Amino acid sequence: MTMDFGFSSDQETFRASVREFARSTLAPHDAEDDVNGAMRPEMPRQMANIGLTGLRIPDKYGGQGAGALEVGIAAEEVARADLNACYLIVNSTLVSEIMLGAADADQCRRWLPSIADGSTIPALVLTEPEHGSDAASLTVKAEPDAGGWRLTGEKTSITMGMYADVGVVLARTGNAGPSGVSAFIVDLDDGHITRSVFDDLGNRPIGRASIYFDGMPVPRDGLLGAEGSGFTSAMRGFDYSRAVMALACLGTAAAALDDAIGYARIRTAFGAPIGTNEGVAFPLVECATRLRAARLLCYEALWRKDQGMPHTVEANMVKWLAPKLAVEIVHQSLLTFGHTGYSSDNPQGRRLRDVIGLEIGDGTAQITKLVVARNLLGRAAAP
Are residues 84 and 138 in the same domain? Predict the structure, then answer.
């Protein structure tokens, strides 16, 4: 048995191309996008031009048909330059993953090519004001209507909610519990919806929003899969998207740590570089060690996904670990800069505000630990 911790030559080439794209195209606008609190209109097409919005979409629908490892590589490298741009990768891969598992051929032909080419921004429309972590109890209704359904109720904390053209909407079509939840693919350019943006601490360009459905009509061919299968479809997508988001956090943390290490080499105090002081150097060593360990666990989860192996435990482990670790690393990196790190001219503060958001979004630490606990202990012996 062999154990290989490296990437293939094709994957390394891909990594280098994404890193250069992120450095040259995304990084110069990161600070401005944060101040403006808006996503630049050209960004989806720019990312689509190098295949980042169609990574998991098969080539017959205009995508790359890439593996989960490649998605992780892309998220990590993009996040080194701009964490918020990663949400375009995550949304497109998560929505396409759900569709490929539940949609029929006609639905795939209608929606996936435009997601792949960046002309359509997708969103997963799941969370509700009273039902975030307890998603199986959602109350937005899909009521039967002539020729289909009508959606009524409010969704909230929708990533890319202000920009999304299409959404996979989870709504109740049956009795209480997960078996009464169905998934619908809907055009969000409709007069029956109202959007309201959040004024957030971080992740300001991603347009996190509430969406209210006022009897929005959905045709019969908008149902994804069978009635009552929506919750299962969404949770299956989270099994690997959580590892992708973890790598995005670690990419941001790695960029922050690189800056701090570089500063510790050149900043002098008392006649020597500050890195010669154990109080500066050792915290950076600890950050580098923990970052490397978490990164390996992320890629193990994605490798297992590509091998068709169970990966729920690994993906949920890193979803609680990586955002927490990223916050700690960025914080320590900011402190390494001293008073200059506290200035808005330094990217550390912006990075810190952004990674904090992923301690909440896409599964809180409590929920992901619960998933792991039930796998380790069994449901009867777990919380």
Answer: no
Q: Which of 326, 320, 321 is nearest to 133 (CA)?
A: 320
Tell which of 228, 258, 283 closes a domain: 228
Tell whether the model's pLDDT for residue 9 goes beyond 80. Answer: yes
In this predicted structure, the answer to whether residue 199 has a pLDDT above a threshold of 70 is yes
- How many domains is the chain built from? 3
Rounded distance between C-alpha atoms, residue 263 and residue 250, angstroms: 20
In a domain, 2, yes or no: no
Q: What is the pLDDT of residues 284-298, one digit of tens each?
A: 999 999 999 999 999
Token duo for residue 224: 């994804």
CATH number of 65's domain:
1.10.540.10
The 3-state secondary structure of 106-172, one letter per residue: HHHHHHHHHHHCCCCCEEEECCECCECCCHHHCCCEEEEECCEEEEEEEEEEECCCCCCCEEEEEEE
Given pLDDT bands bounded at 50, 70 and 90, which one contains residue 191?
confident
- Pick from 205, 228, 251: which residue ends a domain? 228
How does DSSP classify residue 218? E
Residue 320, domain member (yes or no): yes
Nearest to 347 by CA among 227, 258, 222: 258
Task: Extract the tokens encoding 197.
Answer: 């943006």
